[in-house]
Amino acid sequence: MASTNGWGLIGTGRIAEDRVLPAINSYDGNRLVGVVSRTQARADDFARRFNARHAYTDYGGLLRNPDVTVIAIHTPNAQHAEQAIAAARAGKHVFCDKPMATSAADAERIVRECEKAGVTLGVNFHNRHMPCFVETRRVVQSGEIGDVLMVQLEAGAGRGAASVAQTWRQDPAMAGLGTTMNVGTHVYDILRYILGSEIITVTAMFDTAPGVMEATSLATFKFANGAMAQVNVNQSTPNPYNDFVIYGSKGRITGRALTRSRAGGELLVRLNDGNERKTEYPAINAHAACVVAFSKALLEGGAPAASGIDGLRSVQLTDAMGKSAWEGVHVRLAG
Predict the structure, then answer these.
(1) Which of the residues 90, 95, 150, 262 has an alpha carbon 20 to 30 A from that of 18?
(2) What's the whole-model pTM score?
(3) Rounded Cα distance, 296 and 302, in Å
């Protein structure tokens, strides 16, 4: 087992710059070996600012570097599969941004190649590291609110989010889906994490026709444990609440302003006997927590908080949501 993770980063966008690279450098067991960008000038700039030893415009050069042991992929969605598979075949562990791929077939290929190569595959589902969701999962799994009956959740980035307008996220060939993959994948995953159950049936509705990037994605999920969820994910409404409510047979959990990782809020647990407790949760750097946890897992031989299978399940779900929305049908996911 290695004593140090040698990181290589492919993709120098805003999340990599603001969150991922600082997080890599914050952990003593990591060293940043190299970065890849489309232009040498940008690669050189990132290497200088984040103390990387090498700057590339071709990720093949990064993969051939023997000091690199793990690759972080933060490129447009449609590029993830090719890059993750190339990294696995080069014997590198893979930390992939969400969605892991734009199709279930590509996600399956990534999982298969990483398993074949014996490398660890993790996905940047950073919401799993938010203390409010860790506590919500604990309460649900403890049985304190009884059997979960229904969940209602909203996750909105605000109308015409500036970070999305006029970027590759508006290109179906590069992004796959719109707000479903940009905002939704985080909360769909967190529901699986909290409930500890798989989604077996989905009904979805988008605000656009097939091939046009949706800004509003409404869905109803049924889970294997019998729970159901209504989920509103959008980049169309101003001033979203970003709340969630989990209704159980013995009580309920209400999260106020907690479904977007960069904002703080409060969590209320109310039981049927009238007992209630409220906890404030300030915003944390969940991306950093996710990177550090993956780094520790590699050095200690543990499993990542969100594995390649979690990434695959997410893409299987978004595939099903697209089919449901565009064909007007209920879709049952394969077991």
Answers:
(1) 90
(2) 0.95
(3) 8
